[in-house]
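Tutorial, part two.
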Amino acid sequence: MNRLSFSSLCLSFVLVGGAAAQHGSLPADIDPVSLSRLPVVKRETLDAEGQRVYDLVVGRDRATPLLGPGGISMYSPGVAEPMHHLNTYLRGEGVIGPAYTEVAILVAAWEFEQAYEWSAHEPAARRFGVADSVIDAIKYDGGVAGLPAKDSTIIRFGREILREHTLSSSTWAEAVEHFGQQGALEIAAVMGDYVMAGVMLHAVDQRIPPEREDLLPKR
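Running the prediction step on this input gives:
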């Protein structure tokens, strides 16, 4: 057995043990490595096109399995590639900037009760300088009075869209005032991107990795 194969085997044992410690006895349909209903996709099982997409999304020499939306998406390379490009653009090149992108992600994760995404993006939001007051307003479904105007606008934007399935003229106008027309559209795109990811995560019953704390309050 080569060194990489041995390391991967050891990692599998660590992941299985950690998952068992965190989750107790996993349901019968949850894979102990992927922590979802879908086992981790192996590169060698894919055709040439699938391997090209795998190398883009997962990384050819990745030593640990890619969990969550990226790993799940590899069951359909035609889905995985555009998802990867959209997410890469919105988080790295989008016009609203990384901090406000994280605010939009948190709103979508909260509204969709997606603990896997929330547990990853609350720490990310803090790293990008999102204020505790903004995070807590989303996390505990609090009011937005007194929050910075741009954060308040994004939170109200998401609550209207995801609860009422409509957006008021005034909230749209505020979003355009703060972020421009492209930015207002990209706020919606970020939320849509993470709602789509949330649908996939709920469908496969994705569990949170043992090294990550579940930070989303239960409702």
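The CA atoms of residues 104 and 190 lie 6 Å apart. In part three we will examine how such features are distributed along the chain.
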